[in-house]
Specification:
Blueprint: E1 2-4, H1 7-18, H2 25-41, E2 49-54, H3 58-72, E3 76-81, H4 88-96, E4 100-102, H5 107-112, E5 116-120, H6 138-144, E6 147-151, E7 173-177, E8 195-199, E9 213-215, H7 218-224, E10 239-243, H8 250-262, E11 267-271, H9 275-281, E12 286-287, E13 294-297, H10 305-315, E14 321-323, H11 326-333, H12 336-339, E15 345-347, H13 351-358, H14 366-377, E16 380-383, E17 389-391, E18 397-399, H15 412-425, H16 431-448, H17 456-473
């Protein structure tokens, strides 16, 4: 898991570390890592044209010292000074190395000939959109074709929430120092980051063990996945009960059952009006009630009294329940059904469903919104989006890194609910929605790479390939 820390925590760690170092040493570490990345992006440093966008804070100093290192290697480096003040040591180092200072009025001209642009305008303490004259440079930079490198985070992105309030820098590569910050991994800020490179500046010993949030990596998911073992049978691998479908929405039941089967459930029991369609597509599924280790309730269920009764019945039991789609609408009318449970409840809302459950929109802080709802409803909240946020009632948050716009299609959420249900039935508990979101995103990426627009059925068919890729990470011997 990649640990992500909020701004206040990073600031405290930096202060503690700087107290142990000579003045300026921490900035030199950051600038060295930044310069190394910039040099690697250029076909040759000597003779290249580099533009630094320099703000008033330490980010500007990092950019200036990195620019000085590039200038000493023969790059032509122009520093556009955009702040009310400029880091004096960094500017002196750049000028001594042969770099030039440029006024904002000449910024568009030098950007137009640059091979690489470094964004050192605003650091992690900034808030709100880029202001003039920096905001006017966004379009020329995007049109220039130059490599775009952000220092610590793209300017205009809120470091703690990922909110983008207006004009903002879009990077090809973001070089962040010490650890990622939440705004680098959460939508919409994540979309501005490009490739995220973390430069170790020695903060590790000064950061707390419990991060603000975590981001799973493929090896984490591969290690936790419930691979079949030699002594397993269909019951030991987990039995999922799927309560889904209605006369109008039989396909939702088919997709949810398929998601559970494709994710490795030992057995799926289906109850609902789409039995004929489920049997036709999934002869492996059993139609009728029986013992289960987890329920999936809601895809295509409807919101009438009969559907409400079926949801209440599932939540009254003592096994984990995934509440999705129509069941979320019903739960919004009786939130106590989840809040009073002792067994695990996983809620899988998109933004509009979240607003019904919470009584308010998600807003700009997706992590905070999911965390609050999870605590209020005593549930794990899987807030779907291009970067899905999984928040537990204990305050822990995981951000899924495999999201893709390909998932913006009807029925993909039904597949996801089935996948999560299978993992709950296998005994993974609160890990189930984290692993489920990860492989669901991998499957969508796999499907999108082999065809045009992706459907939920495409995602379903790609699940074995996505899971098989995780098995390969374990050397092909996962069971």
């Amino acid at each position: 898991m990649r640990a992500v820390h909020d701004v206040a925590t990073v600031r405290a760690a930096e202060s503690a570390l700087m107290a142990q170092l000579p003045p300026g040493a921490l900035m030199q570490r950051a600038a060295t890592g930044l310069a190394r990345t910039c040099a690697a992006l250029l076909p040759a440093v000597y003779g290249s044209r580099v533009v630094l966008l320099v703000g008033s804070g330490d980010n500007g100093g990092d950019a200036l010292f990195a620019g000085a290192a590039l200038a000493r290697r023969g790059a032509r480096v122009d520093a556009v000074l955009l702040g009310s003040t400029t880091h004096p040591g960094g500017l002196a180092a750049l000028l001594a190395a042969g770099g030039r200072r440029v006024g904002p009025e000449d910024a568009a001209r030098v950007v137009g000939t640059a091979q690489l642009v470094v964004d050192g305008i605003v650091g992690i303490g900034g808030s709100g959109a880029l202001r003039e004259p920096a905001a006017a440079l966004v379009a020329p930079i995007d049109a220039s074709g130059a490599w775009r490198v952000a220092v610590d985070l793209p300017s205009g992105v809120d470091a703690d929430t990922g909110q983008v309030a207006g004009a903002a820098f879009t990077a090809d590569v973001t070089v962040t120092f010490g650890c990622p910050k939440p705004g680098l991994v959460v939508h919409p800020g994540q979309a501005r980051v490009g490739i995220l490179e973390v430069v170790d500046i020695g903060l590790g010993p000064y950061l707390p063990a419990a991060p603000a949030l975590t981001v799973p990596q493929a090896m984490d998911v591969a290690a936790a996945w419930p691979w079949p073992q030699p002594d397993d049978d269909k019951y030991s691998r987990g039995v999922v009960g799927v309560v889904a479908g209605s006369a109008a929405f039989t396909g939702a039941a088919v997709l949810a059952v398929g998601g559970a089967l494709r994710a490795g459930a030992g057995l799926v029991r289906y109850t609902g009006p789409a039995a004929d369609q489920v049997r036709a597509r999934w002869p492996e599924a059993v139609v009728g009630a029986g013992r289960v280790e987890a329920y999936v309730v809601g895809p295509g269920l409807g919101t009438d009294d009969a559907a409400a009764h079926r949801l209440a019945e599932a939540l009254a039991g003592d096994v984990p329940v995934v509440v999705d789609a129509d069941a979320l609408t019903l739960l919004a009318q009786q939130p106590g059904l989840a809040a009073r449970r002792s067994a695990l409840t996983v809620l899988t809302p998109h933004d509009r469903e979240f607003a019904r459950l919470a009584g308010r929109p998600v807003g700009g802080d997706r992590v905070g919104a999911a965390r609050t709802l999870a605590a209020d409803l005593n549930a794990v909240v899987l807030l779907k989006g291009s970067t899905t946020v999984v928040a537990g009632p204990d305050g822990r948050v995981v951000v899924n890194p495999t999201g893709t716009p390909a998932l913006a299609a009807g029925g993909t959420g039904d597949v996801l609910s089935g996948v999560v249900g299978a993992l709950l039935a296998a005994g993974l508990g609160a890990q189930a929605p984290v692993l489920g979101a990860f492989v669901h995103g991998l499957a969508a990426r796999e499907a999108a790479g082999h065809r045009g627009p992706v459907t939920a059925s495409d995602v379903l068919e790609a699940l074995p390939l996505a899971i098989g890729g995780l098995r390969d990470l374990r050397g092909g011997s996962a069971g």
